[in-house]
């Protein structure tokens, strides 16, 4: 049987790949193990992980397949690989149109939402030196995300999952729901379809198992932030 190892950080975008692997394992198609990295502790910069992925990013998937070993990085690449290796897991719908819609969702979430807007909120110091400029960078990212959340909400169905049946799109959407909640966007009060979708996703045994393994939930809070950045309100 194929065996995988996922290098992940709790609650990071690697959560989607973690859920995909759990779905595959529960279907009896492969087995996997995990290596936990704590990003605030700098685990991603330590020599033992850089030997696996010199870029120092998660997720990373190592695998043993047909007697060969390999290492794959980048979330979308890992998800694509797992889908091709295990079509029986139905990580995306079978129809060409719905599969394409799935990749439309995944690409937009990984690029515009994550790499563009959310990075301005996560790490404004990467884009500006002065404290005032960093605050402006974060404000710009937050304004962009507010537009994205409205777009996202308008495209979700009232019932079921993003593509009708559960898929890795829902696994990635719950990543961003958790981030949006932790960073004070209050999706649980502003976006009822997204909230209902997240609740349905979290009700799946595979997702519950992964949340337990990563020791995360939808109510955990961020540590204190620098004074010049947006302060997360109580109850967010």
Structural summary, described in words:
This protein has two domains: 87 residues, Glutaredoxin (3-Layer(aba) Sandwich), CATH 3.40.30.10; 109 residues, Glutathione S-transferase Yfyf (Class Pi), Chain A, domain 2 (Up-down Bundle). It is of the alpha+beta class and 236 residues long. Helices cover 51% and strands 10% of the residues. The protein is globular and about 55 Å long. Helix 1 crosses helix 9. The protein is built from nine helices and four strands. The chain starts with a strand and ends in a 22-residue tail after the last helix. Helix 1 links the parallel strand 1 and strand 2.
List keywords for this structure.
Glutathione S-transferase Yfyf (Class Pi), Chain A, domain 2, alpha+beta, 2 domains, 236 residues, 9 helices, Glutaredoxin, 4 strands
Write the layout of secondary structure elements.
Blueprint: E1 3-8, H1 14-26, E2 31-36, H2 47-50, E3 60-65, E4 68-73, H3 75-85, H4 96-122, H5 131-155, H6 168-182, H7 187-190, H8 192-202, H9 205-214
Parallel strand pairs: 1-2
Antiparallel strand pairs: 1-3, 3-4
What sort of overall outline do the alpha carbons produce when their principal axes are compared? globular
Gap between N and C termini: 43 Å
The CATH top-level class label of the largest domain: Mainly Alpha
**Any idea of the CATH topology of the largest domain?**
Glutathione S-transferase Yfyf (Class Pi), Chain A, domain 2
